[in-house]
Structure formats: C-alpha cells, structure tokens
Amino acid sequence: MITVTDLRKVYRQGERDVTALDGVSLSVPKGSIHGIIGHSGAGKSTLVRCLTLLDRPTSGSVTIDGRELTAVKDSEIRAARRRIGMVFQHANLMDSRTAAANIAHPLELVGTKKSVIDAKVRELLGLVGLEGFAGAYPAQLSGGQKQRVGIARALASDPDVLLCDEPTSALDPATTDDILDLISDLTRRLDLTVLIITHEMNVVKRICDSVSLLEAGRVVEHGPLREVASDLRGRLAKQLIPLPATPPSPGGPVLELLFTGQTTSDPVLSALTRRFDTDVNVLAGSVELLAGTRFGRLRIQLDTHTDMTAVHEYLALQGVTVEVAA
Questions:
Q1: What is the pLDDT of residues 68-93, one digit of tens each?
Q2: 241-324 CATH pick, 3.40.50.300, 3.30.70.260, 3.10.420.10, 3.40.47.10
C-alpha cells in the first residue's frame, strides 16, 4: 500500500546544504501498522512533511496504492492529500469549534452537502467512542478525548492511509494505551494502512506489525517486528526486549538467549542443567508480547567446565537463539 523509494530531502542553509533525509526506503503492506522510530533530529518530521507533500522531496518517490504522489501536479496536491488522514501530537483542534464542527471541517472545505456531513460526523463520533460529545468544545475535553476528535477528523475524508505523528507523546500512560488500542481497532475495522512516527518504543511494542529505525536521515534497521526482535545483535531487538545491565561476574561464560513462542514456556534451562551437569546462573531476564508472539530474553552464566559447543548445539535444537555476551 505505502512504498517509499530512495527519498531524499536536502535543505539549503546559508552557503551549505543540509541533508535531512538520505535515501529512505520502506514498504508498508495494506492493513498493517508500521512504526518509524528515532530520536530528535533523526529526520522524522521531515519524513512526515514529505509523505504529506507539505514539502517536495529533493528526489525519490512516495507511492500509495499504486499512485505516485510525488509526481502529482501542484494543482492536484489537495486531492492527493485526501488519501492520507493526519493525526497530530496535540490534536490541533480549533478552539472556537465544537467536536462535531472540528470533524466536519475537512468535508466543508470540499463542499460536501450538510446532510452528508451531519451523518458522517455522527458515524465518526460513534466510531471513536464520543457519542454525546458532539457539542463539546476542546476546552471541555480531556487530552484523550481531544485526540479521539483528531482521529475522527482524520478519518472524515475516508483515507486509505492514517499517518500519526507522535499521537500519544502528550498523554498519560493509561490514555496512551486507550488511544493506541483505538488506532489498532480502527485499522482492522476500516482496513487502514497506518504509519506511526514516534520516539517511544512502547508504542511500537503495543500495536506495530513492523518497524524502521531512523537515524541521521537514514533507515538503519527495519523489518517485521518478529524478525527484528529475533536478531539478538540488532539495536531494535535490544530496545524491544530490553535487559538490565549486569556487572561483570567471575566464573564461566555468559550467554544471551532468545526464546520465541512456545519455547518461552518450555523448561529448557532445567533440562540443560540436568543434561550437562552444570549450574545455570540467571543474570537478567525479560519477556515481551510483540505482534502476537511471545519473546523471552535471558542472560545466563554457566560453569567454567561446561562443554560450550554441545550447549550451543542443544539450545539450537530446542529453538533457542544463542549469542556469547560481549
């Protein structure tokens, strides 16, 4: 559904060029949720502006459902943008308009009949769980309710894609979970394709099917959540399934183990202890549910006499990924 190919954006600042996006490529299948994660200055805001054609990229392309948006004429940009619903960090509601009027605004701009607008607004208010709040002004709404209005407004033009720019960073944890659950539910119910720009790994963990790590304008890691989580050497895996730091421990070798799916429930360590007549010291552990799959990560230390080659072979047969800890 969404294909970004070798996207570059170079700004001119005084006498020098600043490269904000440096060959960004990614693909998001229809009906899925993709997270773009990165720190401040990584290029996330520039990517949003290029995806919505608020900025024309220097080179590269953005294609949605087979149509290359970066090739449309300036006169066609507004129509092209209607295919992308935009959810902002602070909702960006108009204070002088009620919730219903805020949702209606995109439809009014294109001359939609009032009867059609009224029916659509009622439908959207129900869809985001705000029945009874049509006449409320933004000042009368909580942060989560404002964001629900913002999501409803983004859906008013029946977009193919929902682009969410830090949609929960201004919300408390409980409200964040509610909004993320709403986005996930809407994705399934409306068959949307969602791109979430965020700096919060918890957002990715909770609802994303795939993820890209953006750094200095480049995608440095990407893939389905299950794949990136399975790469013990990857930076994303370390953030998705974090382990606390442990001080150096005298004794035998230290291993990091990754358990996936059923192996997270199997008694692998107790069987290993009996099989090799060795003690296993668990230094740290973590369990996460990612994209519907349970992942477990352990850092363990074995006795100095343990046959490490045999241990590696045994764990591999049990479906456990093993890395020697640095």
A1: 888 888 778 787 788 899 999 888 99
A2: 3.30.70.260
